[in-house]
Specification:
Elements: H1 7-17, H2 22-68, H3 75-148
Helix pairs in contact: 2-3
């Protein structure tokens, strides 16, 4: 009977000739983890500021409703109270929407800044990894060629 070749040994030898650089993978993971942490901090800060604005807006609205609901001496005073409330709410709404827009603008600017920095870091990591992989492959190819002769 014909003897079959042991492919396991052949594959191990072949894979050993092309070493894998796990350092570049670790660096990429660390860069990604750091980026995620920074992006999370941006989001959490924005959420905190947004909730502060919403909470203050709610408290102010409730106080103005309490003032509006007080008993009045004249029927015309009720109409004036409602008009004053509506006018004040429109003004406060504009202010708060502007504050929310500022938060959104800051989140956008911070995110773009982080993404550009991360892109630069990832590009540098990828360039270093490609250079090292090319050097390793060249060395392995030279070694394989020398062994084959």
């Amino acid at each position: 009977m014909a003897k079959t070749n042991d492919m396991t040994a052949t594959l191990k030898e072949m894979m050993g000739s092309f070493p894998v650089d796990t350092k570049s993978m670790e660096d990429a993971f660390k860069t990604t983890a750091t980026l995620n942490e920074k992006l999370s901090n941006v989001a959490l800060e924005a959420a905190e500021k947004s909730s502060e604005i919403s909470s203050k807006w709610t408290k102010d609205t409730l106080n103005k409703i309490a003032d509006m609901n007080k008993a009045k001496a004249e029927p015309a005073d009720y109409a004036k109270a409602i008009t004053d409330f509506a006018s004040a709410q429109a003004e406060v709404a504009a202010e708060n929407m502007a504050a929310f827009a500022e938060i959104a603008k800051k989140v956008q600017m911070d995110t773009v800044e982080l993404m550009m920095a991360a892109g630069k870091d990832l590009s540098e990591d990828a360039t270093a990894a490609v250079k090292k992989a090319t050097a390793d492959a060249t060395t392995a190819a030279k070694k394989a060629t020398a062994t084959a002769k």
